[in-house]
Amino acid sequence: MLLASISLTLIIIIVIPIAVIFSSRHRSFDPSRAPVVDSTVGEPLRSSGCGESIPSWLEVGNSTWRNIVTFGENRKYLVYLPSGYNISSPCPIMFNYHGHGGNAEDQENITQLSREGSGRNPGDWVVVFPQGLDLSWQGAPYSTGADDVAFTSNILDELSSALCIDLNRVYAAGMSNGGGMSTVLACDSEFSTKLAAIAPISAAFYPGVFTDCQTDRVVPIYDIHGTADTIINYFGNGDAYLSIHQVYEDWAGRQQCDDNLPA
Hints:
Elements: E1 12-16, E2 62-70, E3 73-81, E4 91-97, H1 104-111, E5 126-130, H2 148-162, E6 165-175, H3 177-186, E7 197-201, H4 207-211, E8 222-226, H5 244-255
Parallel strand pairs: 1-8, 4-5, 4-6, 6-7
Antiparallel strand pairs: 2-3, 3-5
């Protein structure tokens, strides 16, 4: 999801008292309610792909499946190259993760981030929809144990060498288990240094992600979660996953924000 203001210094908490925002698990999504990014964050950090010809396996204005091997495992991702892509102009990149049981194509259709006419993509964002093994992501108790941080890092390395990417504008977002995956990236000691911000949507925040958070850098977060969500309860589920307020308090504490968080 593209962010309305990505250069955040504090946690922005949006509580929407409806059951759903969007989902690969049959929750409806109203694109008109989604924030749109202002794609200006500091000076661009040009990737090595700037000035290089567009690879033959990519097509401007379309999405393409790409296979990649991570730790001997065959993986794949769907990548959208925007119509406004310019080989000399560094563009932002977003990783957008599907929910448990969903897939990359579902996530592309739900978010509409490859439909520039929808207003979700201003025409210069590269958007990556990775495909989870067994349709799940690292950090969840039902995940396959695959290293999805390494998978994401491999994708970023491949695309930043093939395309002109602004490495100061690398973002991660996702739905449900996919939203939790964006937090896994933000808690990784190495990958967190590459992230400008994350945007989990109706995310499942599993305890291990926070107790094992390996970074001192607190990545800016834009979180959306409905208080009436019956799939991933806003108020948590015992030891299964954290309440959203617990997550806010933890993130705010590590960000050294004040205590004036909404209840």
